[in-house]
Queue: 2 jobs
Job 1
Amino acid sequence: MNRWLGHSTSHLPLESTIAPEEHMPRLNLQPQAPRGRIKRHGLVEEVYNLIRADIMSLRIPPDSRILVDNLVRELGVSQTPIREALSMLEGVGLVSKKHFAGYYTAPTLNRKQFDELYEIRLLIEPAGAGYAAQRMTDAELADLVQHAAARAPGVTRADTALFADQDAEFHSRLAAASGNSLIAEALGRLHTHMHIFRLRFQREIATEAAGEHALLVQALQQRDAEAAAAAMRAHIEKSYNRLVQFTIG
Ligand SMILES: [Zn+2]
């Protein structure tokens, strides 16, 4: 039982791909650190990132109660930054606050939600990639190429959040480069990566996705809108096939 939690209704095979002895890097703060040495904003952000990484890596399983007091002990900070961080996590759909029952992690996507997410991605993202191939500036393209090349997925639980961030960043940059702000906003509202990366993380998934991104980047470099749209469609369809087996219900 995760020591942060009251109970868990999750029956995911949490440790099947993840060694139980692996631990997330913890907050690098002394519990008795003098107040005021860390700027308040920075502290909330650090707490946010830690809790988020723990949710993304399933260290805190889906649909589980989050006990604020346990976080206070674990992170050595007061309730205030933790509550602020939890509100921010509520804003991105990873946490929900239940009346009189406190904070819970969001449940894993069920099959219907997963299908809906991929349907909308297939409507928006290939179109966005096609527009980006035609409209993105050379500087935006160079940035994207560099970003795609920098990804180096690791094997630990901590890498889940990191790879999710890299993938989210790749997709959101590309959507922004479409030159259609509504495409970028619509994609942003889906919080795709928060949800799909909690289904499963395996090194192979990250590696395959990186190869698919490379094909996409190639099409963008050739300024080939049709090929870019097709590469994005293929990437999303393959992602669907990799992950659909891990949805429940
Ligand atoms: Zn991707």
Job 2
Amino acid sequence: MSEKEHKVSRRQFLNYTLTGVGGFMAAGITLPLVRFALDPALKTGADTEMVAVTQVSQLSSEPKRFDFKIDQVDAWYESEVSRSAWIYQEDGQIVALSPVCTHLGCTVDWDTNEEFKNRFFCPCHYGAFEKDGKNVDRTPPTQPLFVYDLEVRDGTVYLGRPRPQV
Ligand code: FES
């Protein structure tokens, strides 16, 4: 290559320099703004707070349905959401199950079908679950009911997020 081909005119030098500095400054301003705008969406769902649902004294070995509300933050949108749980106490242990059928999401009820006595029953497609939430063989659901995170403080039952049973 000749020396002539490598020569950069003053005008070209200024062009390159200003373009580089301008791009750097634009990125410095734009990136924090983009990060600020997307931040709520990038956060993994914040842990749902534990919500007081009932008193331990209200529980028996028979599952009982309790309705409650939680504050849910979904990216930029904050709302109050209704939830329900089937809760019972047996052998000193409290269990809180989600009423959402794991087949296609209908709502299960306790002991409402003659064929499935003392079990949770889903009327949508005749799904059934044992008292501990395990799905009954040869019914449509293929996984157990979700179980709520649970804490007991001063005789009050607090529920968090429903999670799949392992
Ligand atoms: S939705 Fe419950 S059995 Fe299908």
